[in-house]
């Protein structure tokens, strides 16, 4: 059984649905136990990322949310800290108004992993926040360092909404970056107004692990 040492959290993650809906967004890094630092990836865990009022409203109004994760592994011990490895991945959450469910997908590289459909925002948030092993290159034995994480949450950019719909219908390969269908000027204008009215500005969260030595 894998064992992990939890760090950088102010509260436990065994939370009820009602608590999830009320609490402030949190994100943190969970390190493996000392003997596994060079063989097992750190976990990224969170709570309350999509249950806050603005994000929930955007989802309910048909704007998928993108959670973009950037993790870096820094090495220490010299004159300056150096970035030794980097990893990025995305989670996309959308509300299916017809089925009345929240759909969650994780995108790592060019692969998409459906994480399920959920009847409540709290259930979807619990899946988004469940421990995920970061796809990052691990440190060598004896190399001191730490992990840092930046998470950006935003409504999918206006030129990406049509592509996401086509992707979910199976018409496109999974992609939320790169060249997009620009859509119509009227459509972009209406969506821009809606996102601003619903408070859809980008939100950024950061976390850092303690320094460790494998």
Estimated share of beta-strand residues: 35-45%
Task: Spell out the helices and strands N to C.
Answer: EHEEHEEEEHEEHHE
Q: Largest beta sheet: what is the strand line-up?
A: 7-6-5-4-9-10
Q: Using only CA atoms, what is the Rg?
A: 18 Å
> Could you tell me how far the N terminus lies from the C terminus, measured between alpha carbons in angstroms?
19 Å
- Overall form: elongated
Low-pLDDT sequence parts: 1-22, 177-199
> How many β strands by DSSP?
10
The portion of residues assigned to helices is 10-25%
Structural class: alpha+beta
Mean pLDDT: 77
Q: Biggest β-sheet: count, sense, barrel? A: 6 strands, antiparallel
Helix segment tally: 5
Structurally, how many domains make up the residues? 1
Write the layout of secondary structure elements.
Elements: E1 4-6, H1 17-22, E2 26-32, E3 43-47, H2 53-60, E4 65-75, E5 82-96, E6 101-108, E7 111-118, H3 121-129, E8 132-133, E9 145-155, H4 161-168, H5 185-197, E10 203-208
Antiparallel strand pairs: 1-2, 2-3, 3-8, 4-5, 4-9, 5-6, 6-7, 9-10
Structure description:
The protein has 214 residues and is an alpha+beta fold. The chain has helices at residues 17-22, 53-60, 121-129, 161-168, 185-197; strands at 4-6, 26-32, 43-47, 65-75, 82-96, 101-108, 111-118, 132-133, 145-155, 203-208. It has one domain. It contains five helices and ten strands; from the N terminus they run βαββαββββαββααβ. It has a six-stranded antiparallel sheet with strand order 7-6-5-4-9-10. A hairpin with a 2-residue loop joins strand 6 (101-108) and strand 7 (111-118).
